[in-house]
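Standup notes, protein team

Yesterday: finished cleaning the Actinoallomurus bryophytorum set.
Today: Methyltransferase family protein structure.
Blockers: none.

Input for Methyltransferase family protein:
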Amino acid sequence: MTRNPAMDVRRWDEMYRSRDQVFSGDPNGVLVGETIDLPPGRALDAGCGEGADALWLARRGWQVTAVDVSETALRRAAAAATEVKDRVSWARADLITTPPPADAFDLVSIQYFPLRRRSGHAALRGLLDAVAPGGTLLFATHALSDLAPRQEEDFDPADYYQPDDIAELLDPTWNVLVKETRPRTAPAPAGTHHTHDTVLRALRLP
């Protein structure tokens, strides 16, 4: 099925409007575990949602660009960010169709972002190009073993990137530091049964 960007925006906005808080408000465990020792710099939070990851990074001194397609989610995130508002820039954009600036970020964090594999991998390459030399790419998603197709939602897990897919696209200017499946460190989102994450952490060489 052809992707309809406007329909995607409506779907995400409807999800956020359906509840006062969709997610836990805690930063993703993969982000915390893999970046806690990194020196603060410029970070891109792809698909920031209600902003827990962006706020955690900002409170640790990062300058964060937090991007999402949902205006509802961004308003909610900004309302929670009063003490670090000078360190987070909230931006409504579709990173599938609009790539971020190249070579701009010391960390590009892609946490459970619904990034489908497409011919030419344009959306993924845009995110890879956003990592500055010496910067880190951090990708995490649900393990395939925890996912099942849902025909009513046009969802097939095989359509979406896993760490192996991304690692195959990295050229010799990248050093893969982590590529593994691991147990989740936090409870699965309500209504789901996710028990494992797949994680890729790669360093773009200076």
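Follow-up from PR in the comments: Helices lie at 5-17, 29-35, 52-59, 71-79, 122-129, 163-169.
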